[in-house]
Amino acid sequence: MSVEVVSLEIPEVKIIRPRKFGDHRGFFSEVYNKKAFAEAGVELDFIQDNHSYSAEAGTLRGLHYQGGEFAQDKLVRCVRGRILDVAVDIRKASPTFGKWVSAEISAAEWNQILVPVGFAHAILTLEPDTEIIYKVTGHYAPTHDFGIRWNDPDLAIDWGVDEDRVILSDKDRAQPFFKDVVHWF
What we know:
Blueprint: E1 3-7, E2 14-18, E3 21-23, E4 26-28, H1 34-39, E5 48-54, E6 60-66, E7 74-80, E8 82-89, E9 100-106, E10 112-115, E11 119-125, E12 130-136, E13 145-147, H2 170-173
Antiparallel strand pairs: 1-2, 2-10, 3-4, 5-12, 6-11, 6-13, 7-10, 7-12, 8-9, 8-11
């Protein structure tokens, strides 16, 4: 089984498209196969699957990351609806430090995004009743859970939606600005 892997403008962030086989009954797809991913150059040890549901379009979750020994690689796929997925490079020594990339991930496109350690991550739902499932390489650790303000003017992320239409948690509304972050990679 092969898998297509394409790097984005920041090459560590990748779009992954597993093969999908369909007929009159429906379809079958191996959305993750450790051997096939390794053959495509993606060798990670995922330890947990998470499932997130957002009722309304315009729900924004992020920009989140975990630091230290609890840092996480994430493999995100959308099983219903569409999302804009954003990754911000927070690796201090990186030539793309403070830059971001985004991609639309959807159930219809059958694509996934790999967001590696060293990136803050966010999703914005583009349709109501959107669900994502994502694999991570580290367990959740509240003491190592950090974030960055989603609408930081220094990052200037193009979310493609009016700020007053974004639905946020209180936690995401209060995240620090990029210039005030103290936990980098």
